[in-house]
Structure formats: C-alpha cells, structure tokens
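Tokens in:
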C-alpha cells in the first residue's frame, strides 16, 4: 500500500493491487440455505471455466456440490455462457468440472498463504464465520448479500461476473475492519506455586470482528465486572453484563444496548454495559491501542458467561481474566462504492437509519 497526500483520509487511499495474477479462491456459503446452494455452484463453475482459477471449498460444501446436474445452471449471456463447456456430453463434462474443485479441510490444511481472495455468499453471519477461519492474516473478502440482513455484504449476486472481474483486475478499494485479539486467562486458585500461575484457557488468542460479551447468562443475580484500561481501573459494571465491541460490531449487539454506531475506519473499541443498574452509565469509546481487561469483582455473587463473536461460549468465573487489544490482523473487505458510501448505504437502506414513512410537508405558500 502506498500512502499519497496526507490530507486525504486513509480509508480513501486503500486500493486492491495484485503483485501477481490471483489464482486461488476460497468460496464460502451460508449454512442450511438451499436457495444459496444453486448460486454457490454457479460461482464455483464460473471461476473455473471462465477465469481458470483454482477453487477451494469447505469439506461439507463439497459434498453438496456432488449433487449438481448440468441442467441446474442457466446458460445465459449474463454469466458469460460458461463458454468452456460444450453442448455435447454436457453432463459428463460438468462432472469433470466438479472434480476440479479442491477441498479445504478446516484445521488440517493450512491455506492462509495460498488463498488469494475469498468469495462470501450469505449474510453478516457468514462474513463473521469467514473471519473466524483465519486467525492470522486474512485474504481480501468479497461479500455477496444472500442472507437476512446484509449490512456487511454490499454486493448483489446478479452482478457477480462483473464484480469478480474487477476484483481480479485489482480496480476496487477495500476497508480494513479492525479486529480485537482476545485472550482468556485463568489466574490460578491452588495453594501451590504451580497452581497459582496464570495460564491461557483458550488454546490461542481469538481474533474478534464484532464483540466480546460477558453476561449473566443462566445465573439469576446481576453481574459485577471490573474493567481495566492499560492496567488502570476504570469502573465496575453492575448489571446484566458488558460488551466490548469493534466499530464493525457497533451495529450488532452493541447497537441494541444503546451504543453509538461507529464508522469501520475509526480506530477504537466501544465499551457498552448491558442493562446497567445506573441511569448515568453511558457507553464509551477508547482508543484501539488500549489494552482492556475484564474480570469479575471479588464481591460478585455468581459467575457469568463469556463469548467471542457468539462463539467459544464458556463459564466466566472469579478466576478468569479476559484481555483484549488491537489485532495485528484486520479483515480486508472489498468495497462496492467506497468505505463511507457503503457504510452509509447500509445504515440507510438496511438498518433504516433515520427513516420515516412520510416526510414533513412544506408550508403552503401564500
């Protein structure tokens, strides 16, 4: 990335550029949605036949691809006619194309340095899932809206050949969505020195795109959660819990609890209480480079639950400390019109921000 005029905001200077022609694509689709399956098959075949790319899919998705038939896909001009497929022995050739698709076995195959870009078919949850697959550097993600909400997925699938051609040429910009690196520690409770040593509960730090949530879960009492910023005690949350969110997560659970909606390019973390027992406890934003820690207060009457982007849910007791800091590995999401334009379009069209059914009428002129 080359930085130009320092007066121009950084988010306007991020453009996709390939040092070599991309050759490997990972295609990820939404779970349990038969309507997405046909489009998933269509894109995989297009990438192979028209663009000659090596296509990777997850093992579970490859099994669904086995059921494909040649007649399942339209052979229209809008999808470049799938020109490499002849009209003779169509079914046989189609089976041969399916066999060219490569299977990615999660946890077994390390493809972080091999995948050039990711095509994501689904909603915001599918994008979160794609983020969770890459706990270090992430290839650029092009997200097509085929889910329920689609705030983070700006592209229309009907235009996928045109859009993917632009991606392959490197003519689009992208947004770096900051992630939080989160580590759950156990402070140790035993009497021996070995038992009292801190150790990590989660095997590795978790890269969080939306939020870390600590809440009372099944426990009847309120949570009492101490928050520290750079080892400085900030406050104790007394209520149903607390959310530490990224700007991307500001439109998710944090928004439902009253936090400000923050543009994805703003480098910050948002601390939001869940149903606080205080009328004056307002959500706050702190710089992204702060190190945040949360633990249960010593006077807390019960335990809590913790989750990371809705995953890795587990008990959170007085012996636990969760540490959150800026991740070295942000999520590069390809823009449709531009970082801010896509964000405002999502607010207005998807979340219906500041929308009203009827505008105020002007006064009659006399």
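Residues out:
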């Amino acid at each position: 990335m080359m930085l130009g005029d320092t007066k121009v905001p950084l988010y306007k200077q991020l453009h996709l550029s390939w040092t070599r022609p991309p050759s490997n694509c990972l295609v990820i689709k939404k779970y349990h949605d038969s309507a997405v399956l046909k489009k998933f098959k269509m894109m995989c075949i297009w990438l192979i036949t028209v663009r000659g790319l090596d296509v990777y899919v997850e093992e579970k998705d490859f099994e669904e691809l086995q059921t494909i038939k040649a007649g399942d896909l339209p052979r229209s001009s809008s999808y470049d006619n799938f020109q490499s497929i002849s009209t003779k022995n169509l079914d046989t050739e189609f089976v041969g194309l399916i066999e060219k698709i490569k299977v990615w076995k999660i946890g077994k195959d390390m493809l972080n340095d091999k995948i050039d870009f990711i095509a994501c078919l689904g909603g915001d949850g599918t994008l979160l899932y794609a983020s969770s697959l890459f706990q270090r550097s992430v290839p650029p993600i092009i997200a097509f809206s085929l889910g329920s909400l689609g705030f983070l997925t700006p592209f229309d699938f009907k235009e996928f050949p045109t859009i993917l051609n632009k991606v392959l040429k490197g003519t689009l910009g992208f947004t770096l969505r900051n992630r939080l690196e989160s580590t759950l520690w156990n402070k140790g409770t035993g009497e021996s020195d070995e038992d009292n040593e801190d150790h990590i509960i989660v095997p590795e730090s978790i890269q969080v795109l939306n939020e870390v949530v600590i809440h009372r879960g099944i426990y009847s009492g309120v949570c009492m959660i101490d928050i520290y910023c750079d080892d400085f005690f900030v406050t104790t949350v007394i209520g149903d819990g607390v959310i530490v969110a990224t700007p991307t997560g500001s439109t998710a659970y944090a928004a439902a609890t009253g936090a400000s909606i923050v543009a994805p390019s703003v480098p910050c973390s948002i601390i939001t209480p869940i149903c606080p027992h205080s009328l004056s406890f307002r959500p706050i934003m702190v710089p992204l480079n702060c190190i945040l820690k949360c633990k249960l207060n010593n006077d807390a009457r019960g335990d809590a639950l913790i989750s990371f982007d809705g995953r890795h849910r587990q008990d959170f007791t007085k012996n636990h400390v969760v540490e959150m800091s800026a991740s070295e590995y942000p999520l590069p999401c390809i823009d449709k019109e531009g970082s801010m334009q896509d964000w405002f379009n999502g607010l207005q069209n998807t979340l219906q921000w500041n929308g009203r059914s009827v505008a105020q009428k002007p006064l009659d002129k006399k």
